[in-house]
Write a structure and sequence with these properties.
By secondary structure, the chain is of the alpha/beta class. Helices cover 33% and strands 27% of the residues. A hairpin with a 2-residue loop joins strand 9 and strand 10.
Length: 241
């Protein structure tokens, strides 16, 4: 099955994420490792961006800094007009909870919670009333075509089903940005293709910005832009449409 990239030709290019001179250095002296080296970039509202590169190229480090999960050595990250590099840890946690969703390679679902309970959890943590949280979770599971598995626990779900639940959970708070770290890495080809198609459909329906870290060229091809990384730098930006 051939999957084309999402179309942003009709969308205004409003900067959602702006990065200036971003670096991350681990260690000192002879043990110093430059994981990220003076990166500058902009990500626009409503686009899909793929950060592509081999292991050790700095792509996961970049994602962690963009999402405020790690502190840079130098540089700034501004997300939706707010400089997260100046926020306290508590401020960043609240900002992530409201404005960001996360999809991981190995799903990161809570095994003792059912599918619907996993999806509604971020809403409950944001103090959304239980009835509203449950209604939103059921709505999203239906959109993911997995409503019939709402009462199943993660170990009872296939990999593809677990990733659909994880995507529903990421969407639950209606975030502006979804960070996806190797979202098809643990899936077979068929399920991987379905997840790629789902990301495109969700991007087009909600105009949610997706930033996808991957080493897989086929995943990168669904993006509007590919930022190819080498040795902690963005070596090339490729526009797909």
């Amino acid at each position: 099955m051939s999957i084309e990239s999402s179309d942003v030709s009709s969308k205004t290019k409003e900067v959602l994420i702006k990065v200036e001179n971003l670096s991350k250095i681990y260690g000192t002296g002879n043990s110093k490792v430059v994981a990220l080296d003076s990166v500058n970039l902009e990500i626009y509202k409503g686009e899909i961006v793929a950060i592509l590169g081999p292991s050790g190229s700095g792509k996961t480090t970049l994602l962690n800094l963009l999402a405020g999960l790690d502190l840079p050595t130098t540089g700034t990250v501004v997300v939706d007009g707010r400089e997260i590099t100046k926020m306290t840890e508590e401020e960043k946690a609240k900002f992530r909870a409201k404005e960001m969703g996360f999809i991981f390679q190995f799903f990161n679902l809570i095994p003792v919670l059912t599918a619907v309970e996993n999806v509604e959890l971020p809403l409950l943590l944001n103090k959304v009333p239980i009835s509203q949280a449950r209604a939103r979770a059921l709505e999203l599971l239906e959109k993911m075509n997995i409503l019939h598995r709402k009462d199943a626990y993660p170990p009872q779900l296939s990999g593809g089903e677990q990733q659909r639940v994880a995507i529903a959970r990421a969407l639950s708070t209606n975030p502006k940005i979804i960070w996806a770290d190797e979202p098809t890495g643990a899936l077979d080809i068929k399920n991987g293709e379905q997840i790629k198609r789902l990301i495109i459909d969700l991007n087009q329906e909600f105009e949610t910005t997706f930033v996808i870290v991957t080493h897989d060229q086929s995943v990168a091809q669904i993006a509007n832009r590919i930022m190819r990384m080498e040795s902690g730098k963005i070596a090339e930006i490729i526009i797909n449409n």
